[in-house]
Amino acid sequence: MTPDIVATAALAALGLTIESVFVPFSQSRNKAEKRNSLNWKVSLCRNGKAFLTCDYSAGIAHCPGYKVKEAPLGFRTPNFMLPMGQVYKGTTSRFRAATERERLNFYRESIATAECESGRAMRFNEWAGSADFKPIPTSSLILPVSLDVFYSVVMDSSVLDYATQAEWGAEFGYDIDSIKGESIYRLCISHTLALRTAIGESGIDALKTAFEDY
């Protein structure tokens, strides 16, 4: 069986599911970050009853529009400035047109930005004549992948394998003296205790085994 099937079967055996509410990037915990992301409030449930609600994020590679292979013909990008004040060969301009790869990357970034804010699959609005997007009428809200969510929580549960925060921080590369490192450590502890209360140590062990090849 594939890792996906094994993990899915383990979640089903324990009665585990998720419910999620989309959070626009501009209102998310990551809004100060330079890179956009998809964000949700996710509730982990056992037999339909929530036992843990937390933030969950996914990178723009998970946006439907980011997977396109080419940019629409009508999509325009800004010109690119040459480095160190150079001028484009044969002209007096310091700007050049985007290459096809740059144009595609700019399109992917642009449509992903729109999807991270709306939570829906978007399409280029060719009538606007610029980087403007509108929701695909038949699209539903973008949802997190359940297996990814549980994988993240299961991996975080290893925090209880370390006697101190310093040991945990050294293993996972977190600065234990920073506010961020302290916050992440406490969240991992809190989430793991909630998971253990819901499914017990044996349940956590079963999930670790199921997700080890995921």
Explain what you see.
The protein is of the alpha+beta class and 214 residues long. It folds into 2 domains: 3-59 and 143-211, no CATH class; 64-135, no CATH class. It contains 5 helices and 7 strands; from the N terminus they run H-E-E-E-E-E-H-E-E-H-H-H. It has helices spanning 3-13, 100-118, 146-156, 165-172, 179-211; strands at 16-23, 38-46, 49-58, 80-81, 95-96, 122-124, 133-135. The protein has a 3-stranded antiparallel beta sheet with strand order 1-2-3. A two-stranded antiparallel ribbon has the order 4-5. A two-stranded antiparallel sheet has the order 6-7. A hairpin with a 2-residue loop joins strand 2 (38-46) and strand 3 (49-58). Helix 1 crosses helix 5. The longest helix is centred in the C-terminal third of the chain and has 33 residues, at 179-211. It is globular, with a radius of gyration of 22 Å.
